[in-house]
Every structure is written in C-alpha cells, then in structure tokens.
Amino acid sequence: MTVPSPREVLRRQVYMPWALIPAGRMVELPGRGSTYVTDTAGPTPDAPTLVLLHAVGCTGLLTWYPAIQPLSRRFRVVTMDQRWHGRGIQSPQFSLHDCADDVAALVETLELRHVVVGGYSMGSIVAQRVWRQHPDRIEGLVLCATTDRFRSSVAERVFHQGLEVAMVGARGLSRSRTAVKAARTAARALDMEPSDIHDWAMAELRSTSPWAVGQALAALGRHHSRPWLDRIDVPTAVVVTLRDKVLDPDNQIALARRIPGATIHDIDAGHASCVLEAETFVPALVEAATTVDARRRDLSRH
Q1: From CA 129, how far away is CA 96, in angstroms rounded?
Q2: What CATH number should be reported for the domain holding residue 168?
Q3: What's the CA gap between 208 and 23, in Å, rounded?
C-alpha cells in the first residue's frame, strides 16, 4: 500500500480557494532588517491603507491572499512577513514588541497614510501592540480571531508553560543553522510559479521553521493586553470566529466589549477561516474594515 505524500493529502482533503497572488518585494526597514512585502493599489491614489498581519506559522500572503483583491476595491492593501516567518526579518530573538515596531517602521518606510492595521490570530496580537507602542501611526484596528491573553484556561496555561521550558532547553541549538535553512526554503518558494494553489500554500508553510513557530507561540503565551484594552482610542472592529477551537469565541467577544465603541462581526466559522472558509470570512472582513474606515473618516471631519 502506497502512503500518500503530504502534498497528496493536502490536495485531497484540504480545500484551498483560488485567488490571484500579488507580486511582492523585499523591503529594507532601516536598522531592523529586510522583510517581504506586497503592496496592492487601492481604487484611488488617496485610498486609505490596510496593513495586514498574518497568523503564527504562516506568511502575509498565505493568511490574506483570498482577501486582498476584494479589499483593494476600497483600500491600498499591504501585507508583510513578520519576523522569523517566511521571508521576514531574522534576528537573535523573537518578541511581539519587535514585531509591532517592525510595522511602525514599514509605515514610515513606505510613507503610508491613513493606516488601519488588521491582524489575524497572532497578527491581531501584534496589531494591538502597534496601537500600544505607536498610537500616532495608525487610525484604526481590525482584529480577527483574537484574544487578550492565551492562558485563560488550565489547558492553555499548561501548554504555554511547557513550551517555554522546552524553548529554554533548546537554546543550545544553533539558531544560525535554523535561519539559514529557513532562508533557503523561502528562496525556493520565491522562485516558484503559483500555478497550483496547493503547491504554493505548502511552499509558504515550509518557509517558516518549526523553531520559529515554537518561539512565537511561547511569546504569545506571555501576552496580556486586558489592562489597557479600554484605552484604545481608534475605531476598532472585531471579527469573531464562533466555531473557533483555538481561541475561545466568548473571549473574543469579551475583548471586543472592552474596547470602547468596537463593533463585532461574528461568523459561523473556525480558526482557519481566513483561508479554509474564505467565502464566509472575507465578506465579514470587508464589512469590518469598511466600518472602521467610515468611523475613521467621520472622526477626521470633526
């Protein structure tokens, strides 16, 4: 009996929506490093900008590719690979604080205007921190499949504490070898024509090393934004994934209610809905982003 390859399993069992994959480029963030960025024009030169931050273990394109074209009817849409992911910045350490600073540096480097930051799962955590660390850089937030902390249950606490211990024990491994391997994998992905969406998705997934995913998960386990959520003063929308088995939907709703004036856009979908249930997720995302932009414009007139 022939054992199917991961590629064959992916093809047979995982639905991947087809969409145009925009071309990107490496962008140097002064003093920080280089990262892979896509920049899709909006309907007019003065369209507001939506900066999209991806989930853990993914890339900017893998998380957001089904949504880019629909969003570009209203926004200039920018995606980036966050550090240690895909073709993102390789650094000695990973921290959510640095990820938020990277976003602010990208906004400055590309001279982006009227910026709304959108994030999915890990990306939503970084988006929260962008407001916390650089409130003058952004004018709105769209948080998807989000939370204010990852240790809200006994199971989550045990998982994240165990992961931190494992990461400490693994510090003797060569980080440089891991970085080189990830960079080579990313280079192969860069040269690939995405004629088959499953092959392209597999290449994007492989461009982030397991080491990087572990470090990012450990950092997420230390996140806690509840003490300052009620101080967020930009228009915010929260897309809640009601069938989420990773981040409790009740916690997602509770987070939204802690942010003054945040709108809730709930969908009957799971944690991977940004791609696997894109037909449900993308319209809710467009609605959430449009709501934030309308409120942003209203505030600018007063």
Answers
A1: 8
A2: 3.40.50.1820
A3: 19
35: three-class secondary structure by DSSP = strand
Confidence grade of residue 15 (pLDDT, cut at 50, 70, 90): confident
pTM for the full model?
A: 0.86
- Whether 1 is in a domain gets the answer no
Which residues, in sequence order, are CB contacts of 229 under 8 Å at separation 6+?
128, 148, 255, 258, 259
Q: What range defines the domain where residue 58 resides?
A: 15-300
Residue written as token pair 């467009």? 286
Residue 242 lies in a domain: yes
148 in Cβ contact with 225 (< 8 Å): yes
Instruction: Please tell me the total count of domains within the chain.
Output: 1
* Residue 2 neighbours by CB under 8 Å, 6+ apart: none
Structure tokens at 135: 């409130």
Tokens of 200: 């392209």
Instruction: Tell me the per-residue pLDDT of 271-301, one tens digit each, with 9 for 90 and over.
Output: 999 999 999 999 999 999 999 999 999 998 8
Structure tokens at 40: 């899709």
